[in-house]
# Entry
Amino acid sequence: LINHQRVVTKLTTERIAQMAVLIEQAVPLELWPSSWSAVNDNIQHAGALLGTQPAPGVALAAAMARQPQGMLDEIKQANLRGCGGAGYATASKWQLCRDTPGQARYVVCNADEGEPGTFKDRVLLASFADTVFEGMSIAAWATGAQHGLLYLRGEYCFLLAPLQAVLQHRRQQGLLGKSILGQPGFDFDIQIHVGAGAYVCGEESALIESLQGRRGTPGIRPPYPAQRGYLGLPTVVNNVETLCAVSHIAWRGARWWTGMGTAQSSGSKIHSISGDCARPGLYEYAYGTSVQHMLLDCGAQCTQAVQIGGPSGVCVSASEFARSICFEDLASAGAFMVFDESRDMFEVARSFAQFFAHESCGFCTPCRVGSELVLRQLDKIQRGHGGNQDLAQLSQLGQIMQSSSHCGLGASAGGMLQNSISKFPLSYQRRLSRHFVPGFDLDAELSQARLAGARHVAATHLQTLP
Amino acid sequence: MKPLANVTSEASDTGPSSFTLDGQAIDFAAGETILQAVIRAGQYIAHLCWHPGYPAQGACRLCTVSVDGRMASACTVQAQAGQMVQSRTDALHSLRRSLLQMLFVEGNHFCPSCEKSGNCRLQASAYEAGMTEPHFEEFYPQRRVDASHPDILLDHNRCILCGLCVQASQLFDNKDDFAMGGHGTQTNLLVNSISGLLQDSSIAVTDHAMQICPVGALMAKRQGFLTPIGQRRYDLHPISQDREDSDELRTPP
# Structure
């Protein structure tokens, strides 16, 4: 819960009752118990990224010793891929930015962690901010950027003051500002921009629009932000975790990174595990770890399904738990939501559909209208008024959204729906009426007429629904 | 989308600066998008949010085509030599019909009582696509009518959020009378004036922002029926044979 930019965690019935008392007594927010705002890291299984961190400046010095193109080549050899979901090769992005002429270049850290079920970036910013900022400085060194921007998710505004303090400390250490680490001409500083809470702004071109004070809608690509980004200048946009990995690779080398993971997915990945398990929290594994392995570690039992990568990702059912998380198999942005056998997968899909309809930016037709139509259709089925034709229409809507949406939001919303219908057909089938049910309720439509005529006898009602 | 079996052989007939549209070669100039080249060649791909002379937006998605097997909006994809573009397929006709139906149910569009009927690109595109019913559940949204301006009517019920008036006001009229606001189903056209009303904006009836509206959302007052129904633009010929776009491509606004 976020109340006037103040976070309240671990909401229980008891805590809400206590909160109501404070509100009734008009107790100002500053006097609420500070323990209510405590946000824990909850790291359950640390690996390369969540383990030992390089001391401030060490990774940057290692990067500078390699020269800019050398550092870029190191990232290329490490085969580092973006951790925000798309998995684009980081070195290609950097090279494109470096090779594009521009009066200035920007490095943007995408900390708009909005995918439901992911909270890894929050922990990295709360506890390893130095590593993140150092990754930005290394990106600046490699690409020739002068300015850095951290786009902080609106709901993470409680991190703003601590992050500003880390930045200030880094300036004092000579790790930001003019002539960084005594290198003439290496000038780079970072500003923080707080987002306003739109999910779509996690998409890099929408994020750049938002940074410029415009409405957050995804742009047309190409040109990519690396060619024409913030203020029309070459801009690298990287996820928080990616920039952390950059620092670690600069510090320990590409060979160390490629020593972990699989052929096409080198290194280590942080997963935010939530849902029906004994020990939710952050778990870090090398790429290629199986879903089954992770379920065992977090203490999940009687698991029906796992949503990998959040609502935009893919849902795997029990028969697929031997599959592993890597770009060759199940790509993931880091969310790992566990649903046990007590959960109704139809309701899961309906709640995801609500999320997408709410977060659609409204720019393109299939997502703006389609996500609302999907929701209405699911609501109709939920009320027991759905038939086979409704299920067919849902699949059709999913396909339209997937194939014709302007950006990944609409496409993922459509994909989520089709995935859910194909993997959990029974949870849909058992709700369907065997008879045709019209799309609207005739009896409800007559309510205004009954009101006007003040007649509520049986003759003024129509029984058209089962 | 299944590619046509005979496309590969036809692709070899294309010149260094041409691609194929449903098997037919289309020449393009450097920097042109697929839609620009197609319209300039006098061919037709359905579109509502693109207008010659203005940057592509990619909002309505009506011009979705298959480019080398991948779905993309023709207005945003750069033309490249040898591309195989498919537009006239059953799947794409069906997709466009669905997108048009979405635009219809989202707003309040009552063609028989609309002054724009016959001159409306939404209506004409729907006829072209063979749309005979709204198919989806009507939203019947509660939207305002802004009749405050002495010469111009803004009826939000008919707005399809194409953004063309926003572009025209900024890029041609050198004003900034419109913007898009809200998100999801609450997305709406905003008037940039202190009151939010058209009368307090700088728009004039001669502005391109007013004339560019493809539907009946922005209309000049007292002119609704100057041309009788039956003699209007798309009463005379279907939108696919309309040469407005290709004419204007030669003489940008």
Q: What stands out?
A: Chain B touches chain A at residues 56-62, 64, 71, 73, 76, 78, 95, 98-99, 102-103, 105-106, 136-137, 139, 161, 179-187 (CB under 8 Å). Helices of chain B lie at 7-11, 34-40, 90-106, 121-128, 164-171, 208-211, 233-236, 244-250. Residues 30 and 84 of chain B are 17 Å apart (CA to CA). The radius of gyration of chain B is 19 Å.
